Amino acid sequence: MTGAYDDRDGKIWMDGTLVEWRDATVHILSHAMHYASSVFEGERCYNGKIFKCRAHSERLIESGRLLDMDIPFSAEEIDAAKYAVLEANGWTDAYVRAVAFRGAGEDMGVSAARNPVRLAVIAWEWGSYYGDAKWDGAKLDIAKWARPDPRTIPVQAKAAGLYMICTMSKHAAEAKGCSDALFLDWRGYVAEATGANVFFIKDGEIHTPLADCFLNGLTRQTIIEIAREKGLTVNERRINPLELSSFTECFLTGTAAEVTPVAQIGDITFEVGDITRDLAKTYETLVRS
Fold first, then answer.
1. Residue 169 pLDDT > 90, yes or no?
2. What is the β-pairing status of strands 17-20 and 11-14?
3. How confident is the model at residue 134 (pLDDT cuts 50, 70, 90)?
4. Are residues 92 and 86 in contact, defined by beta-carbon separation less than 8 angstroms?
5. Domain ranges in the chain?
6. Same CATH topology for 11-124 and 133-287?
7. Fewest CB atoms within 10 A around its CB: which of 90, 144, 199, 200?
8. Are 51 and 44 in contact (CB under 8 A)?
């Protein structure tokens, strides 16, 4: 599937109905366009089954609640919409995105209580998020922006507005020949990449930042569970960037990223080691089972 994302053949689910891809439009005065009142989920379907489908639907509803935006569909209805989109487009392996947003209505200021909350579900065929880096190791820049204090934003919501600094940081990283950028948080500790959580390995143990100011990814939780089932020690803690050179392996996790090894962060290099490869293989087996 190629071409601009707004000019493709296929079906998109909008507010309870499947519509033609090119007809899936919204008004320019939709509140989300002006005030970022939007939440979303990214999911992958493998062999006809969406991995952690219900967990994603429930998180979407919770993200809406955190933004004072009650989504007018149940988790069961959202699940059904995802599979309806996949069936309508004839896909068994695809990326699935559900997005809820405040549409156009009687309000067009910061307040939008009278505007409808709308929901769309889209899917498309998407390969490796980081391309060849999935096998060779990604190269990361250090972002100039920081993940903010959770007192300033609802950090456990997967909200579109929270990705503004991600887009800017990824653009800056790509301009330097990198795949992505690593954020520090407002305190100066390691946080995450622009669209993925980060893990490090040293002396056979795994270390990952505490998810106290960024989204605790479902893939992150899955990898922690897999690692512990394998008998590996997982340390969820604050990581000082001065520690980075002491780690031997590094990898990213996310629905789009899956498990992607990291070969370099700034001037620090890592090996694409056995633990990372084993976790990636186990995850691949799990999502396709």
1. yes
2. antiparallel
3. confident
4. yes
5. 11-124, 133-287
6. no
7. 90
8. yes
- With beta carbons less than 8 A apart as the criterion, state whether 175 and 131 touch: no
Give which of 99, 89, 169, 179 is closest to 133, Cα–Cα. Answer: 179
Name residue 209's amino acid: P
HEC letters along 225-267 = HHHHHCCCCEEEECCCHHHHHHCCEEEEEECCCEEEEEEEECC
What pLDDT digit, counting tens, does each position of 78-114 carry?
999 999 999 999 999 999 999 999 999 999 999 999 9
Give pLDDT tens digits for 211-233.
Answer: 999 999 999 999 999 999 999 99
**Catalytic hit among 82, 134, 158, 170:** 158
Q: What pLDDT is attached to residue 236?
A: 98
| Nearest Cα to Cα of residue 208 among 146, 222, 167 | 222
Tell me, which fold does domain 11-124 have in CATH?
A: D-amino Acid Aminotransferase; Chain A, domain 1 (3.30.470)
Within its chain, how far is the Cα of 177 from the centroid? 22
Domain 133-287 coded CATH 3.20.10.10: yes
C-alpha count within 13 angstroms, C-beta hemisphere, residue 192: 23
Beta carbons of 254 and 190 less than 8 angstroms apart: no
In three-state secondary structure terms, 141 is: strand
One-letter amino acid of 264 = Q
Q: Look-up: residue for tokens 């910061």?
A: 110
Both tokens of 6, joined, read 């707004």
Residues 6+ apart with CB under 8 A from 166: 194, 195
Taking alpha carbons only, the member of 157, 205, 213 closest to residue 185 is 213
**Cβ pair 39, 57 in contact under 8 A:** no
Specify whether 176 is catalytic. Answer: no
Whether pTM > 0.85 for this model: the answer is yes
